[in-house]
Amino acid sequence: MPAENVTVTANYVTKTSGSNGGNSGGNGGGNNNTPSPSPSTGGTTVVIDKNGLSNTGVVSATVNGSSDNFVIKISETSEASEAVLKALLNQYGNVDNIVYFPMDISLYDSTGSKKITDTTGLSVTVTLPLPDSMIQYAGNNKVAAISNNQLESLAPKFTTINGVACVTFTCTHFSPYVIYADTSTLTGGVTGGNGTIDSTPKTGDGIQPKYFLALGLGAGSVFLFLKKDKKKLRKAS
């Protein structure tokens, strides 16, 4: 397959029923999306079959390493949930302070019926909205793949798209994945966690108060220095 990128688009229809995802600690949440029909013609599609992800209009993905069309499925399976739980227990001993969102990310052919098992040379860069239950943790969220019941930490990038908090990460293999946060080690703001924050300047940002204070102190020092010099000159004359 040619080493080219494929832009992935997402199509959604209204979901009439479904089950909640996440752990018992509050990772559920409603999702009004259901898998879109498999494409009958050309085009690569992202299919989300998991609750707890709102604002799916910001979903995007890029397949690296092939010019073929694919279906990327992000779903909830008992196998993925079990593998994620085992990996978290191996890492932390218990999940009392862990909020997590397990998911299976798989690659299918363009019909969406045949799962691709030989993914050598392929990777997918995925952008998802932060799960509804994870938005409050911002950059404290972490992302990991699961390999042999162990967490394989990734380097996510946190951004805001059309006012929606999003996370972008690259899947180098197709298996269970998890977005999670350790609530016992939260840091303030969106700069915490092991990810990177989009540093693109935002319009309307004012000068921070500390810079006004620094400028004021500097101007005051210059004024006092000049005033002192004038007094010395007058005394000398």
Would you summarize the structure shown here?
The protein has helices at 78-92, 209-236; strands spanning 5-10, 13-14, 33-34, 45-49, 60-64, 71-75, 98-108, 123-129, 142-147, 150-153, 157-161, 164-171, 176-182, 196-197. By secondary structure, the chain is an alpha+beta fold.
Observed structural traits:
two-stranded antiparallel ribbon, 18% helix, alpha+beta, 2 helices, 237 residues, 2 domains, twelve-stranded mixed β-sheet, 32% strand
Q: Can you describe this structure?
A:
The protein contains two helices and 14 strands. The chain has a twelve-stranded mixed beta sheet, covered by helices on one side. A two-stranded antiparallel sheet has the order 2-3. The chain is α+β, with helices and mostly antiparallel strands and 237 residues long.
Give the helices and strands as they follow along the chain.
Answer: EEEEEEHEEEEEEEEH
The low-confidence runs, each spanning 5 or more residues with pLDDT under 50, are 6-42, 190-208
State the domain count. 2
| N-C termini distance | 90 Å
Number of strands: 14
Rg on CA atoms, Å = 25 Å
Name the shape in a single word: globular
Assembly status: single chain
Structure classification = alpha+beta
> How can the largest sheet be summarized?
12 strands, mixed
Percentage of residues assigned to helices: 10-25%
Count of alpha/pi helices: 2
